[in-house]
Design brief:
The protein is α+β, with helices and mostly antiparallel strands. 40% of the residues lie in helices and 22% in strands. Helix 2 links the parallel strand 5 and strand 6.
Length: 147
């Protein structure tokens, strides 16, 4: 399996995709849940692979960076202390988890603590994750090294 650019700055995995089961014209509930999990795993693999291919960097998903609070980054490049946080649900009607006041305050505390520990943070939407935008943000941080 490999990555192919299907549109400008948009990459997709190429290979044998599992066919979705259909029962009487609708997907079976178990199959639907399985496909969601596989889809999210594929996105993780796709992002990690694209950064590895494009920049030659090692990316860790769900890296725990704080021992006491058990906070995790969605993705991290530990060798350069770069964290990538995917802010999902921001456009949902009624707001997603990241747009509720209590959760915004929780995220602020997490991000401030990460910064105090020397991490540099990139925040993206799920739609931005596998696009050139995120790679360019990582490149900017690699050029700007703290003393």
């Amino acid at each position: 399996m490999g990555l192919v650019e299907v549109a400008p700055n948009v990459f997709k995995r190429v290979g044998n995709a599992e066919k979705r089961e259909k029962i009487s014209g609708t997907r079976h509930k178990i199959s639907k849940k399985r496909n969601k999990v596989e889809s999210s795993r594929e996105k993780i693999d796709l992002f990690i692979e694209s950064i590895k291919q494009e920049l030659g960097l090692f990316v860790v998903p769900e890296l725990q960076f704080h021992d006491e609070r058990k906070w995790r980054f969605d993705y991290a490049i530990p060798d350069h202390k770069i964290a990538i946080e995917v802010e999902g649900g921001i456009w949902m009607k009624g707001g997603g988890a990241h747009s509720r006041p209590k959760n915004i305050l929780r995220d602020m505390e997490k991000y401030n603590e990460a910064t105090a520990l020397g991490w540099r943070l990139i925040r993206v939407t799920p739609q931005q994750l596998n696009k050139r935008y995120t790679i360019n943000q990582i490149k900017k941080l690699l050029k700007f090294k703290t003393i």
